[in-house]
Amino acid sequence: MTVADVARTGDGKGPTKGRWISDWRPDDPAFWETTGKKVARRNLIFSILAEHLGFTLWTVWSIVAVKLSAYEFSTDQLFWIVALPNLVGSALRLPYTFAPAKFGGRNWTTVSAALLLIPAVLLAVAVSNPGTPYWLFLVIAVTAGFGGGNFASSMANITYFYPEKRQGWALGLNAAGGNIGVSSVQLVMPLVIAGFGLAAAGLFWVPFIIAATVCAWLFMDNLTTAKADPREQMRVAGKAQTWIMSFLYIGTFGSFIGYTTAFPLLINSQFPEYGGLVGLAFLGALVGSLVRPLGGLLSDRMGGARVTLWNFAAMIGAVALVGAGLNAHNVWLFFGAYMLLVTTTGVGNGSTYRMIPAIFRAKAVEGVSPADEKAYAAALLTGKRNSSAAIGIISAIGAFGGFFINRGFGTSIAATGGASAALIAFAAFYAICFAVTWWCYLRTVGVRFAPSLAAARV
Length: 458
Known about the structure:
The protein is an all-alpha fold. The chain has helices spanning 3-9, 29-59, 61-64, 75-103, 105-114, 117-127, 134-143, 145-161, 167-196, 200-203, 206-219, 230-233, 240-270, 282-290, 292-302, 304-327, 331-365, 373-416, 420-442, 444-449, 451-455; strands at residues 20-21, 222-223. The protein has 21 helices and two strands. The longest helix has 44 residues, at 373-416. It is globular, with a radius of gyration of 22 Å. The two termini are 37 Å apart.
């Protein structure tokens, strides 16, 4: 029976209704080349589509907030509207992580895509009424958090489809396809709003959401090998590696989502005479997204920890340049440095995400001989399940960085009139991340303490 047959009918070892695959062995070269690659690629394509739309709805307020001048909200209030979806989306990532293992990746992708209709329609309702109060804007912005949860379920699901040696590229591509959603919003929405009004910022996405929902249902698959008890998956919360990587991910992905969503408001508040540059804010998210697979690819070759370490050093330098541009009120130095900063967050996203499966695979097979094929295969599966669960926790905690960066900018501007205080705090945090990466994964003592991690080229 082929994989396609199993997907349609089941094989008696798992559920027999819907598109379920029971025989899935991506680390078997023969299986991968004959059948696995095609199925994995199809699921990746439609996962990216749904995740991309998740990011667009999650971050749509980054542009809409700039267009709310008629409501006379303060800059700090506008940063709250942009920050809240980051906060809620981060919290939702934890339950979203366990949903594919509980309900099936195809099934949950369908549901999570359909949920995006809620923030899209409510946004249109809010901006269509000039009397909409500020508190209601905050409530509706909260629903945009549904889009933030999609990332965790998508990444946890795709982890199972690809062999370990290809996960850096596959996860990087999946994440980049989603991350580009920020760029899509910031590129397309100013044009849509100018042509059709502010309500179109929500309604524009409705047909795409419906299409993604239908495609996920028709073309994606569930894996019985990914089925797991959420209580068992939560055991990774007791592992130190989960929390170390969560901390580092605050510095990479949290920075990406924070800087890209703050960019339009930051330009508008600090360089009001260059308001037209808001139309170019999409470039930051675009570049940061496109380089994410590069971070994964470099990590596949050099080791994620090394790439992550030096990337944090680059982030410190980029923050310093952004501060120099603001202090000199040089819009082009600021813009160029900000682009460099977002680029480094993209590289860091790819490198830290590559570290996660390598770490949990290495820990799972530690002490298990490859000669014992059955035990080794079981250990590899355990490593994948732990990695998938850890990805959810790590992506949830890491995404809170997006909230902190927006609130950091808002608070700094409200208190001092500028963003310099926030930038100093961000640079200090990256210095700590640099030290943690070196201490936990690259120092000689660390190698002796955890030889399996050294062998995994994390």
